[in-house]
Amino acid sequence: QLSGLAVIAFGLWLRFGGVMADFASDKKSPEYFFMGLYVLVGAGALMTTVGFFGCCGAARESQCLLGAFFACLLVIFAAEVTAGVFAFIGKKVAIQEAQKIYEDIYDDYMKNPAGKVNRTIYHYHLALQCCGKDNMEQQMGLPCPENIQMPKASSCLVEIQNVIDANLHLVGIVGIAIAGVTIFGMIFSMVLCCVIRNTRDMI
Question: Pfam families, alphabetically (predicted)?
């Protein structure tokens, strides 16, 4: 149950908090990246629910509940593997999607610097601590945050790639850790189920 709650909190933080939240809007967001997070959050919610039934099965020594607990953990394990596949195999697509979002906002700003996109592009620059698409020459006239570090200021596209890479590594680490907990849960549930059956046969 605690592992499930941790997975939910981690997935929601990556989706709605931190730098990655700045890539999501009503119309555009790197959905390929977020798809893996949705699966991760769903697996966490299922783990929390299933954990309760596992505790009930162990307390009541019910082979039926323990068997259902094992089956649910198997489904969760498959979901975690799916999230890992989306996170790592889809990394290139997710980076391209996020970079395209920034490039669209950048182009809109260049067409109308006084429009609403002025605040949006500044928000991106502040979150990523960068300014511009390619080089320092393109920073002229852009709403750049103050006191940004060099050479990070030279390319927001590079910073987007770095941020997604870092977040995907976090997803991978958490996924592997939770998968390990899930495997141990399946092993212990089967061991306990066998012990209960043998004990009843002896009685």
Answer: Tetraspanin
Amino acid code (one letter) for 76: I
CA 80 to chain centroid: 11
Rounded to the nearest 10 degrees, what angle do helices 91-111 and 31-60 cross at?
140
Cβ-in-10-Å burial (0-12, 13-18, 19+) of 62 comes to middle
Mean pLDDT, 10 residues at a time, over the chain (203 residues)?
A: 81 72 55 67 80 80 81 80 70 79 83 73 79 63 68 70 80 76 84 80 62
Cα 108 off chain centre by: 29
The whole-model pTM stands at 0.67
**Distinct helix (H) and strand (E) counts, the chain:** 6, 0
Distances (CA, A) of 203 to 67, 137, 197, 199, 200: 21, 83, 10, 6, 5
